[in-house]
Structure formats: C-alpha cells, structure tokens
Design a protein that fits this description.
This is DUF4179 domain-containing protein. Keywords: Membrane, Transmembrane, Transmembrane helix. This protein is an alpha+beta fold. The protein has 3 domains: 172 residues, Conserved domain protein (Immunoglobulin-like, Sandwich), CATH 2.60.40.1640; 114 residues, Immunoglobulin-like (Sandwich), CATH 2.60.40; 106 residues, no CATH class. Helix content is 19%, strand content 37%. The protein has 9 helices and 26 strands. The strands form 6 sheets. Strands 9, 10, 11, 12, 16 and 17 form a 6-stranded antiparallel beta sheet that branches. The chain has a 5-stranded antiparallel beta sheet with strand order 1-2-3-6-5, with no helix packed on it. Strands 13, 14, 15, 18 and 26 form a 5-stranded antiparallel beta sheet that branches. A hairpin with a 3-residue loop joins strand 16 and strand 17. Helix 2 crosses helix 3 and helix 8 runs antiparallel to helix 9.
C-alpha cells in the first residue's frame, strides 16, 4: 500500500466527516481491526473514540458489541472496510451487514437476536461461530448465529429461494436443515419469521431458528473426531392431502467448529419439589437446571403414567425471572414437547444469566398447565338398551349420559348433557371402548391402501358429524346435548372407558431456585 493513497483517503474522509481525527494509516487500521475484533482485543462500546495516535488494544471491565454502532469512528470503519476493498472475516462483517450472502435489514436481525439470547452472548464477547453460505438452483441459504454447547446445537438459517413462496405459511414445500454426523440429535425449529431485505431486490428472507438437543458425551466425541459439522439441506414437499412426504436432497453445508467456541455449561440438580395443587398431579420435581450462554433449560419430572404440557404463547405461559428483575421467556422447540424417560420434560428459556455473576437465584413462574393420563382410569358397562339418563362421577366431574346408539357408519354415539345451553365441549375428558382399541390395528394389518382409505373415511365422518375428533364430547351444530363418536363394531353392550385428557390446571405460583453451590 502507498503512503500517498492513505494520505488522499484520509483527506477525503476528514472533509466528508467534518474534520474528525483519524489514524494516519486508515488502510492499516482497517486491516488490523477485524483481527483484533475476532481475537477479542477490541472494545467497541457504542460510541468509540479514535485518537491521532497508534492503535492499541483497549480493554474495559464489561465490553459490549452492539449490532449497529454510532459515532464518528464507526463512520470511518464502515467507509474503509466496505468501500476500500479491505477483506474482513464473515463474523466481523455479519455484525454490520446482517448475515453474509443475504442483505437483510439489521434492525430485524437485532430484534431476533435479542429474543433468542444471541445478542446477550455477543454483548459479552461470545461471538458465534463463523457463518456459512450455500447457493444452489436459485436458492441462497446462510447458516449464522451458530453456537455449540455441551447439550445443544443452536443456529439460524436465512433463506432466499425461487422454489416456493416463503411468505405462504401454508405452503406444502419447505426447506429443512439438520446435522448429519455425530452431532445429530433431537430438534426442530423454535421460531420462524419473514424478514425484509435491505437491498433493492425486494426478495424476502425466511429466517428460522433451530435447536438440537444433544445426548451426553456427543459433543466431546465430535471434537475428538474432527471439527467439521455437516448440515444436510433437504426440500420437503407434502403430497396426497398430507399423507405423504417427498424429500429431495439439496446439498450439504459444512461448518468449521472452533473448539475454543465451546463454553462449559453451569449445571445444578436441585431435586426441588414444586407443589401444583391438583387432586391427581400433586407436585412436580425440578430435577435439573442447565445454564448455557444463550439459553437456560429446566428438567421437570412428573408422576408415572401422566403427561403435562405448558402453554406457549399466552399470558399463562411459564417464565423465569432473575433476582435482578430480568425476565426470560419460555421458548420451546416445535410443539414444545421434549420428553425424556420417567416423566421428565424439558422447559427451555431464551437468553441466559450465564454472563451475570451477580445473579444468585432464579424464580420459575407457572401460570397454568394441562395434564392427562396415558391410560383410562375408569371403566363401566354400557348396554345400548339400558336405562338413560345415566350419571357418572369421574374425577371432579359429574357426567350425565342422556342416551346411546349405534351409527351405521361404524361408531358408538353418546349424548352427553350440557352444563349450559351454550356449552361447546366437555373439557378434560375423553371416552373410549375396550373393544375399539384394536380397530386401528385391524386396518393397519391389511395394507396401506386399505388403511389410508379407512383414515380418509374417518376424516369425512368427522366433518359430517361436526366434531374435531373421536372420543371427545362436542357440539358445534346447536344441538341439545354434546355428541361423542367412538369408532366401534356393532355390539349390544360396550365397556366404556374414561380418561383425564388435556385438563387445564390454574397454578399461578412462583418457585425460587438458588444458583449458589
């Protein structure tokens, strides 16, 4: 590089930026800056100041690296690195331009990162693994915000494509990304959004956040064998009214994992009882708390034979709050259900207290949950020519069967008394019959074609009966009673079963967990 070129650039910048003070060699400064950034030697605190003196390593007690910088020094950085042709690393560039390969709006990216904990990690100098971009047949895919912990693989995908309309949430076509080598694990997307581009193309970007739960020892094994992560990209198309899935291989994205990017989790096993106050589900147990750089995971344990679920997007969803007053939202993968053996369930939360040494406790708030039993807990004989109405006491409910008959389409039909004329559904209870438990197996054994025809008929029957499912008491046709339809052979007498299913419990309790050893 020439001294004359530096002098000319410096003069032009000073005039354009109202005579600010800048280094003598801007090109040298720009070339050194990304390396200092990636090595954690540079502190940029939102309004940095550059003096007319040699650049030195600056350290502060707490360094914050925001996505969008302010101040005259940043203007110099942007001009030099983006218009002077200086080569910079993808990790450094991604903080300015969103993600490499796709020019997305920075404010959208910052909002997403603040939601999922990536921004908090970056503010504490825990920069993600370098992003990678793949281009194939009119599709651009960038994998960014990659973090690997001892329990999870987290990353975001950014997709521009001509293969399908990414703004159509009901599109039968989707692109799926999953690890293929030793880091394979249970996982799915936790969030999805369509982001506007910052360029003039007008092509939107589909952003999805992935979380893969990894088994014990998998990460250690992966790092011992090599540090190249393979992500398989497939295009998936739902066909035949949702019954079949066509999977097409699009390619493989390889990501280099730096071992020094792996921070060790903070793990506690409090074995703490969480009273719930339900007559069946007396309490849950908090078995484990895992604090990671971007997320926190709680493992709860319930009684054998029961399942329990938490609401995700309403005001009764669980949340964590630290003793400094900061809240952390419940952010489950996919449907939110990640069950382990023995009634254990994972509750994941976005962002983390990992970098906050002064936090001494967390408080878990449970607003409500739904519970259900895996097997029926009540049986009774029900002859079709018996006396009606018939009253049944099940759990804390009084259920009145006003009548029963057999529908020629192949169903036992029950008429359940309403609690009020406007009642639409009997919540928390499902019905079945002992003889009917083998009907699905019967059709499944005779071949796919016959079984598919049977399932198609069931969907058509539900529509004609005006119900959302079999075995539940509903009325959406302004009937005088609630209707239950149960697939069954024609018999004179049935053994009716009742199960507690999806029953909502209001808890509204706080449980404080100490983080101190």
């Amino acid at each position: 590089m020439s001294r004359e070129r530096d002098t000319d650039l410096k003069a032009g910048l000073e005039q354009a930026l109202e005579m600010i003070s800048v280094p003598e060699s801007l090109f040298q400064f720009a070339e050194e800056l990304p390396g200092k950034f990636d090595r954690g030697e540079l502190a940029l605190d939102g309004n940095p100041k550059i003096e007319s003196q040699p650049i030195v390593s600056i350290r502060s007690k707490r360094r914050k690296i925001p996505v969008v910088f302010k101040g005259t020094a940043v203007a110099v950085i942007l001009v030099v690195t983006f218009f002077a042709g200086v080569t910079i690393s993808p990790a450094f560039a991604s903080l300015f331009r969103g993600v490499p390969g796709i020019d997305i709006a920075i404010d959208w990216l910052k909002h997403i990162r603040e939601q999922d904990g990536v921004q908090t990690a970056m503010n504490h100098d825990y920069i993600p693994i370098d992003p990678v971009t793949m281009k194939i047949d009119g599709t651009i895919i960038t994998i960014s915000d990659i973090y690997l912990t001892e329990e999870e693989l987290l990353f975001k995908s950014f997709i521009q494509t001509d293969a399908f309309d990414i703004t159509d949430g009901s599109s039968p076509v989707s692109i799926w990304i999953s690890p293929t080598n030793t880091l394979a694990g249970q996982g799915t997307t936790t969030s999805s959004s369509v982001i506007p581009t910052a360029d003039s193309s007008g092509k939107p970007v589909l952003q999805e956040t992935y979380k893969y739960q990894l088994s014990d020892g998998v990460v250690k094994q992966f790092l011992a064998q090599g540090t190249e992560l393979e992500l398989e990209v497939t295009k998936r198309t739902v066909t035949d009214e949702g019954r079949n899935l066509d999977i097409q291989q699009m390619g493989t994205i390889k990501v280099s994992i730096q071992p020094d990017k792996l921070l060790h989790n903070k793990v506690l096993e409090p074995k703490q009882a969480l009273p719930v106050g339900d007559f069946d589900l007396k309490e849950l147990s908090l078995e484990k708390v895992t604090i990671q750089p971007t997320t926190m995971n709680l493992i709860l344990k319930g009684p054998e034979g029961w399942y329990y679920e938490f609401p995700r997007d309403d005001e009764t969803a669980p949340y964590l709050k630290d003793d400094q007053g900061r809240e952390y939202r419940y952010d489950p993968s996919g449907s939110g259900l990640l069950y382990y053996e023995g009634g254990k369930l994972q509750l994941p939360f976005s962002s983390s207290v990992y970098f906050e040494p002064n936090v001494r406790s967390l408080t878990l708030h449970i607003g409500s949950l739904q519970v259900g039993e895996f097997k029926p807990s009540e049986k009774l004989e029900l002859p079709l020519n018996g006396e009606f109405p018939r009253t049944i006491h099940f759990k804390n409910k009084e259920i009145v069967i006003e009548g029963a008959d057999y529908v020629p389409e192949g169903y036992l039909h029950l008429k359940i008394k309403k609690d009020s004329p406007k009642q639409k559904r009997l919540k928390g209870v499902s019905f079945g019959i002992v003889e009917g438990e083998n009907i699905t197996e019967k059709f499944n054994k005779v071949g796919t074609e016959t079984y598919d025809a049977y399932r198609k008929k069931q969907r058509e029957d539900m529509k004609s009966f005006h119900v959302n499912g079999f075995g539940i008491a509903e009325d959406y046709s302004k009937s005088d009673y609630l209707n239950v339809y149960i697939p069954a052979p024609k018999l004179n007498q049935y053994t009716l079963t009742l199960s507690r299913t999806g029953d909502s419990i209001t808890v509204n309790r706080d449980y404080t967990v100490s983080l101190m050893p």
